[in-house]
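Consider this record:
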Amino acid sequence: MGVKLFTRTVPARTADPFHVHYSGNAGSAIAQNTLPATVRGTQERWMKRFESESIPEPETSIVNIIAHVLELSGPSEVGNHQNSSLNDAQMAKIEALCECRLARMPIQYIIREWDFRDLTLKMIPPVFIPRPETEELVELILQQMENQEKTLFLEIGCGTGAISLSLLKHAPKASAIAIDQSRIACELTRENAESVGLMDRLRIFKHKLVNDLPPELHTQTFDMIVSNPPYVPSVLIPTLDPEVKIYEDLRALDGGNDGLTVIKAILRVAGKHLNKDGVLWLEVDSSHPPVIEEFLTKHGELMGLRFVASYKDLFQKDRFVEIVKL
């Protein structure tokens, strides 16, 4: 669960997923211009405004907004429309969405969708926004699943459903169960699963993980468990970027005093619910792999778990942990 926001090429397919009333007078300053507004002029004006107010990734922000409003296939297409004129309705909509960005709302929430690997998923606040590091976790898992027969896996903390849906799409013999403590996250995972045609292989439960799975799953075992859990130490939550600490669900971030509270709960669940030789995959803070390895060296045999390896992310930080059931 990386906590920085990020840039990505994203299709702008939804006509108006951001439900705001756009006033015809929203661009009164615009209306004073004698020449029609162009994409280039609007992009440059808002880039300067974002830069002057220290908005992160100013170019990415305005390009994604323009692509969304013009219903282009993606932000890379904006360059082909630099001389296009914008009508009053388009300008009013761009102004409204840019005001949201000035308020430090993440661009993913503003345009209400984002790409994860080869899936375009709906995004709504405050459900945690998947980060690019997590795509690497999915790739590691898919490499391991490549030669496996039918696999039943559990995702703990599904959020948008990005991990489960990406795995299911590329592992056609797999099926999954996903849990999340957030009702909104469960509903969003369901909606995304239905939109990409994978709901038939996925079951979703609203459940806060403390000591075990929901009652319906107390006797269920799995070939794999995967989680991108909360792992930010509580004391660091106030230091996060405004986009994160204001808009995203802090329950998906706060990992307790040492960032390991939920991770240790997952280890207990894995010890009980993984099949023999089953695998637990975790995305963790870069300081956690040696701590988890030491913990399992001391307690792993009792839990029936063995630390296998840690893997680096695209920033060369230890981010992913592989654990096997004895």
